[in-house]
Automatic annotation (TrEMBL):
Site (Important for catalytic activity): 124
Keyword vocabulary terms for this entry: Cytoplasm, Glycolysis, Kinase, Magnesium, Metal-binding, Transferase
Start and end residues of each Phosphofructokinase domain: 2-297
Residues that coordinate or bind diphosphate: 10
Catalytic reactions of this protein: beta-D-fructose 6-phosphate + diphosphate = beta-D-fructose 1,6-bisphosphate + phosphate + H(+)
Residues reported in the UniProt entry to bind substrate: 125-127, 162, 169-171, 221, 265, 271-274
Protein name: Pyrophosphate--fructose 6-phosphate 1-phosphotransferase
Gene Ontology CC terms: 6-phosphofructokinase complex
Pfam family, one: PFK
Compartment(s) where it occurs, according to its Swiss-Prot or TrEMBL record: Cytoplasm
Main location: cytoplasm
Length: 341
């Protein structure tokens, strides 16, 4: 078989580990051939390819990013997009595709499956918010980066008797905020799943100052206060209507300064959480996903996605993976509240 591989959506540590595992097992165990499609769905759409053999995947296991490049191109939003993809797959002699991506990339994969394209999906996102899999690779790396930042911020916050607001990624789900906040000993954690009361956050911050320690507030980029507590100005959203990185963090620091009379600073971790080398956990998970994805292709089990259930890698229908976003259950959040203040 000749198999195309692509990576779509926001990059995340571990993508190269998947590509390496797919190619290594695909060539050595099954004797398949590979072609890399560049920049997500733009690759098959525009016929942008690169060679993908064993020499091309040598040494990439610890490297962040993706050797294939990525984009958020959606062929269903482009005129004749699907026809162009089918034509380019045929021209490159591609029998099947492995699409590594998040909700959007896998959503496209699922629709293409319904239109007769042979696709197997591999889930990725640092946000860990994909349904149908217990974990996605990239999440553990992001949490570790954020945890290390929080550890460092504790000491500088204490020296200057300041509040430090740490904004982490997570537009719709607060998994990174919750895990990094717990691991880093944050004094308040704010998630998109629950509107927060700015008065209550200020009270936690005050309480923390009373014990001589400076507070760390971890906030997910998509967290918002109770209705009426903040009017998001136009500059708080980007052209796609998403809350701008840094928007909520900056706002919080200003409000907390005003309410507590103590200096506050904001640190926006942003894309640092997505860059660089993956943790051991993410390398292993990504590698196992890759090994099982090529098995699924070899079995002709198209329209499926590999997923982690407990410690097992299983196959689930692609449609199931994109059906529902996996957000933080409230009982997980309230568990953490014992550390607030
Ligand atoms: O979905 C992953 C993610 O990192 C989100 O946490 C974040 O909101 C978004 O991507 C940022 O996307 P971009 O790289 O387009 O700014």
């Amino acid at each position: 078989m000749r198999i195309g591989v692509l990576t779509g959506g926001g990059d995340c540590p571990g993508l190269n580990a998947v590509i390496r595992a797919v190619v290594r097992k695909g060539v050595s165990t099954y004797g398949h051939e590979f072609v890399g499609f560049r920049d997500g769905w733009r690759g098959p759409l525009e016929g942008l390819t690169r060679p993908l053999g064993i020499p091309d995947v040598r040494g990439i296991l610890p490297r962040g990013g993706t050797i294939l490049g990525s984009s958020r191109t959606n062929p269903f939003k482009i005129e004749n997009g699907v026809e162009r993809i089918k034509a380019n797959l045929a021209e490159n002699g591609v029998d099947a595709l492995i699409a590594i991506g998040g909700e959007d990339t896998l959503g496209v994969a699922s629709k293409l499956t319904d239109l007769g394209v042979h696709v197997v999906g591999v889930p990725k996102t640092i946000d860990n918010d994909l349904g149908a899999t217990d974990y996605t690779f990239g999440f553990d790396t992001a949490v570790n980066i954020a945890m290390e930042a929080i550890d460092r911020l504790h000491t500088t916050a204490e020296s200057h008797h300041r509040t430090l607001v740490v904004e982490v990624m997570g537009r719709h789900a607060g998994w990174i905020a919750l895990h990094a906040g717990l691991a880093g000993g944050a004094n308040v954690i704010l998630l998109p799943e629950r509107h927060f009361d700015i008065e209550q956050v200020a009270a936690y911050v005050e309480k923390r100052f009373q014990t001589q320690y400076a507070p760390i507030v971890v906030v997910a980029e998509g967290a918002t206060p109770l209705e009426g507590q903040m009017v998001l100005q136009d500059q708080g959203r980007d052209a796609f209507g998403h809350v701008r990185l840094g928007g909520i963090g900056q706002w919080l620091a200003g409000e907390l300064e005003e309410r507590t009379g103590k200096e506050a600073r904001t640190v926006v971790l942003g894309h640092i959480q997505r860059g660089g080398t993956p943790t051991a956990f993410d390398r292993v998970l990504a590698t196992r996903f890759g090994l099982h994805a090529i098995d699924a292709v070899n079995d002709g089990d198209f329209g499926t996605m590999v997923a982690l259930h407990g410690t097992d890698i299983v196959r689930v229908p692609l449609a199931e993976a994109t059906r529902e976003l996996k957000t933080v259950p409230m009982e997980r959040y309230t568990e953490a509240e014992v550390f607030f203040g």
